[in-house]
Amino acid sequence: MELGGDEKRIRALFSELSLEDRSRVPQFGHVWTRAQQSALRSAVAPLRDKSLIKPIAVLVSLFVTAAACSFAIWAWYRSTPSQIPSIVNRQPLVPNTPEVFSTPQPVKVVVNSRPRKVPLRPRKLIVRQRPVDRQITSDAVLLSSWQSPTQGLLESPTSLVLSSLPQLNQSAKDLKSFLPKNYEVIKESNQ
Amino acid sequence: MEISELKAELEKLHPASFGWALSCCRQNHAEAEEVLQTVYLKILQGKALFRGESKLQTWLFAVIRKTAISERRKQLFRFVSSSSNSELKVELEFERSEMQRRFQQALACLPARQRETLHLVFYQDLSLSEAAAVMNVSVGSARRHYERGKKRMREAVDREGVDYGVGWRRKENSGAVL
User: Fold this and answer.
1) Whole-prediction pTM value?
2) Which of A55, A67, A83, B5 is 20 to 30 Å from the Cα of A120, by its Cα?
């Protein structure tokens, strides 16, 4: 192995460094004894060994994290409200409504003003919410069958005629009654 | 290998091991001693087991290197400021010749792998394949670190303006040590 000029110089510098280091080398016996003492200490107190402490610490931290997560999920499900707004001061539907000109009590529907964020739920928990769904359905039925107290005012006297069809054996004169009053005027304007 | 036999071998290699530990610990005397003690402890506890797959020196140097790296990693989390260490360092700096001091500075500027390769080849007289085994890299990679290390060393020393008596800027010999 032949060395170049650079290598020779680098080697010379390293050998000088090596000589310097050798003067500072600690005694082997001293270092070995200390290592032996450390080995004895760790054998006597194995719990202080890091190899045991680390897995225990990891396990404990995992357990604490899992407990905190499960508590947070449980608390979240407990606090989640119903998706349909709550109805306050709801009046039941009265079968015999008073006449048109009577002044009925207005039905007050109060909706929670603050819109709630609808969270996505896992499928498993939908099963748990069935009683709540039933309540929601009954509320929806009540709302859909609700009629305004002024419903009677919207009815017209010709509603009977509009809702029935003329009979085939009726005369043309009678049939004219089904035509609008300004039928002749419309016919002339079309021509 | 029995423990008494191993101990005798370790004693023979102790000065070289300390030199290597010093290089791994950036010339920190106390840290190098600590690393060496930890290595002996690992050997005594059976955590570092020599199976005879390589030379004892190669195996021991690899253990020292790994231990030094892990110790350095641990020290990142600690705030160690030892006045005795700094005093010792100052004293050593004073004793060191100017040329050697500049050489040390140039060596410290090199990347770790290049510094390690140069140390193993020039200081410990290991071949490139043995150095590669210690550093746990391929021989090709070790050769690359060696060449680059030499080049950067020369550049760094030129920057420092060290006069080595003979012209330093000679044509580079590309012949690798194998």
Assistant:
1) 0.53
2) A67
